[in-house]
Every structure is written in C-alpha cells, then in structure tokens.
Amino acid sequence: MRREITGRYVSSLAGGETVNAFVPNPLPPVPSLESSGARQRLLERATLAIGRLDSVSTLLPDPQLFLYAYVRREAVLSSQIEGTQSSLSDLLLFELEEMPGVPFDDVAEVSNYVAALEHGMARLRSSFPLCNRLLREMHGLLMSRGRGSEKLPGEFRRSQNWIGGTRPGNAHFVPPPPQEVESCMGALEQFFNQIGDTTPVLVKAALVHVQFETIHPFLDGNGRLGRLLIALLLHQGGLLAQPLLYLSLYFKQHRLLYYELLDKVRVQGDWEAWVDFFLEGVAETAQGAVQTAQRLLALFQQDSRRIQAAGRGAANALRVLNALRSHPVSSLKLLHTETGMSFPTAGKVMQTLIQLGIARELTGQRRNRVFVYDGYLNILNEGSEGP
Fold first, then answer.
1. CA-CA distance, 228 to 366, in Å (whole number)?
2. Measured over all CA atoms, what is the biggest interatomic distance in the chain, rounded to whole angstroms?
3. N or C end of the chain, less CB within 10 A?
4. Domain boundaries, position 376
C-alpha cells in the first residue's frame, strides 16, 4: 500500500554541507496496516514457528548449551553485516583467552554484542522496562571496546550522521538531525510500551525495527542494536522465553531487498511489503533454529554412542564430551576446571576423542593445546561464511 512519504525533510548541516534530513512520523502507520488473508496466514505461520522454537528446551537436555553457542553465532553474523571479519572460532578463542593473535578490534566488537544482549535480557527478566535508558546501556556495552569506542558509547548522537555515499551531499539516506533524535526516540519508546495496544508482537517488532533504523540515534552501532531490539521485543511480548530468534543471517542473505524495503517504507509508506518480508524471515529463521537444535541433539547422541562403543575409558570421555558441549573450543586448563580431571587424564581422553574423529587439536603445539568440537561448530557455522 502506498501512503506517500512517512515523514518530513528538514535542513541539517553535516560535514560543512546542508542536507535534507528525514524525520519519520511517529508509529503506528497512518492509515493503519492493510489486512489481507495472505498476510494473516503469514503471521500465523511465523507465530507457529516461534512457538516451536520457544519449546526447543524440550528437545535438548540443557537448552543453555544451545543458547550459549547460538547467541555467539548471531553475534558473529550481526557483526559481519557491519564489515567485521571474525568467525565463531575467533570469538570462542578470544573468550578462552589462551590464543593470542586473534584480530582484537573485530573480535572485541563481537564479544561486546554478546555482553549487550545478555545485559538487555537480564534487565528485562528483572522487570526493568524496555526503554531508551536500557537501549543506551546496551549501546554502552556494544561500543565499549574496539572500533567505534570513541563514538559516544551509551549516548544519543549530538551531530548529524548519514548512510551510504562518500559525504553527506551524496548520501543514500540522512537520518533526523541531532536535535530531533530525543523526541523521535521518545515517541518510539511510547509505541513499544503502549498499554492496550492490540498490534501483534511480531508486527510491532517489524515496525519498531524500521523506525529505529530510520532514526539511527547513535553515531555507530545502530545496525547491531536495531537487530538486538527485535529479540528484546519478542521476549517482552511473551513470544520467546530465551533470545533464540535472530534475523541477521536472513537480512545478510537478502541484503539488497532489505535496504530497498526500508527505503519504500520511508518514501512510499509501503509498510505492508516490509512486514511481509519480516514475517517470512521470522518463519524461515525460527524453523532453521529448530532444525539446528535437532541436529545438535542428534550429534550429541551419535557421539555419545561412538564413545560408549569404544569401551574402555568411556565414562571419562563422556564427561569431557559434556564439557565440549558447553565450550566447543576448549583448552586442557578449561577441561580440567569443567570436569575435575587431572591434566594428564584430560589429555589422554582428548587423544581418544581425536582418534574417534570427534575433536581436533587446533594449535599443533605440545603445550597450551586448544581443541575444537568440529561437528558442533560445523553445524553452527553453516550460512555464516561468505559475503
């Protein structure tokens, strides 16, 4: 549906140039979203897929294991969209603090993302409202180390930014001027906490994501925080107990269409095309996450059977395998801490797992060796490589 432009242009100064900055109208869209049978069916399919994902804890003996690695996979994907080169292995090695040489700026950005998400979820669970203060707190963590740490972490911007182009004058899009940011974000905060609002949670998340990206309230990190905001909204809306739905891979795979639809919302008011795209992504991503959990469960069961079939030392090997489920990149020091085994025993067990093809040694060293649970990482890495 075409509503014409969904905001107003105002003059703003950026980099010594006067540009037309876009100030969006407050949500919800006016006129309201067009209803259609196709969109209702899409909403039902996405909601059903989210429900299956929310019950993923019934599939896994310890859902926290899945959550630990899945959150980190999302952090890598979301940061890759912004141009970082870190892999999931890089992040796990960085957290292990046993492998120097991992590119600090890239991996610090990814690690910050995990910290920001965990902080946001902990605040919501303690009944703190989803509000601009919380977003600023999360942004402070997101930008605390690495690139962008000098760009006002935890504060709304006080200067004009722009998206695309080599300078403000040829930018693809210019968000609201700094003096408009506070009022725009205040209106957005009111919308996602509106009492008595009957907008379906998934539709609300779709609308909020576009609005946040349009306001671009921070000097850096808007893309990552805008994607994190989706997970927070679904939790606040009661659809997901754990932050298990992330659209970064979907947005990455459909990057050109994603930006095209954001532009159509701003210039033509075509919220419907964006919401359909978003709901399709939710359904596809939730189904993929459930399949990933099922495959991990099958892998754990298969490797447990292989260890038991090997006979001698199976009890210790199963204890180490259990530790690798929690930390798929591990050192002997970590395995010693997790299992209580001596270093020599843990080392012998790892040799058994290597011979069985379950684990692999990464460093090629005699000391300070690091091991990877290959099957686990291979499943999580699918789709995260490439442009």
1. 41
2. 76
3. C
4. 311-381
